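As noted in the main text, all predictions were made from sequence alone. Below is one such record, for Zinc-type alcohol dehydrogenase-like protein.
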Amino acid sequence: MKAFILDRYGSALRFGDMPEPELRDDEVLVQIHAAGVNPVDSKIRDGEFKLILPARLPRILGNDLAGIVLRVGARVRRFKPGDEVYASAPTERIGAFTELIAIQEGALAIKPKNLTMEEAASIPLVGLTAWQALVERANLKAGQKALIHAGAGGVGTFAIQLAKHLGATVATTTSTANVELVKSLGADVVIDYKKDAFEAILRDYDVVLNSLGTDTLEKSLRVLKPGGKLISISGPPDPAFAKQIGASWPLQLVMGRLSARIRKQEKSHRVEYSFLFMRVNGDQLREITSLIEAGVIRPVIDQVFPFERTNDALAYVETGRSKGKVVIKVR
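Prediction:
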């Protein structure tokens, strides 16, 4: 099968042939029609996660996918050949930039009926990230206030809509060019970061979802009320995350040092900091499907690239200028 393959960290992906995946008893073989592109794909390519997520090279990259079930393993009960499905692949079995993937049943969900394959492929990673941040970890409730950084990005466009559905007042940061986009998604307060400093305007927020750098992370502490929660998907990783992934004791110490500064500040501000690395979850993806089919959340797609231009799609995402998601049309 054709695939985009990482031969060594830091290099462009090679377009070539790989053997078809072997199907385990708890897995589903999916013919991929579309694959989502995320900033994490470039980070994996460049080796940023190789200490915490080691992998044998060569490997196929890509997390998000939508496609059609071809075969199922002996223990699979929820899916059958012909089902249209979507998923974010488990970390140890990523590989969506290809024609076929074997994926655990528990990671999959039936594709929303009102979405195309390309639209569906844009959802899983950002949808699960927003869900795990706002629903699972923050327990965001009606009447609370949430700040979603980078509101025009992949996670931001989804998180704004989810937070509004949960009944929160939503603030977001974005550039001048994207103000109208984030307003159309439901943002109540829009901070144009080219004109204003969010930390000088916002006060007494319950939740901040951060996807930006350390400077923004530390400024975000100032907008939270005592007891508020600062959840970051861009780091630094904390000791709780180290335990979650079963990191070695030396690696736990390293992560503790990386997050020591922000954890010291969280105590002085009387708020709670945590690092979130999305985990795959088919049950949560089914909840997201219900919201999409009900019209509560809509995908936001910037561009769809043909399969052979996968490296171009990655490069475009790396510019940081995409609105919503970038998708690869595989079939």
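The two ends are 13 Å apart (CA to CA). The longest strand covers residues 27-37. These features were considered when defining construct boundaries for the mutagenesis experiments described in Section 2.9.
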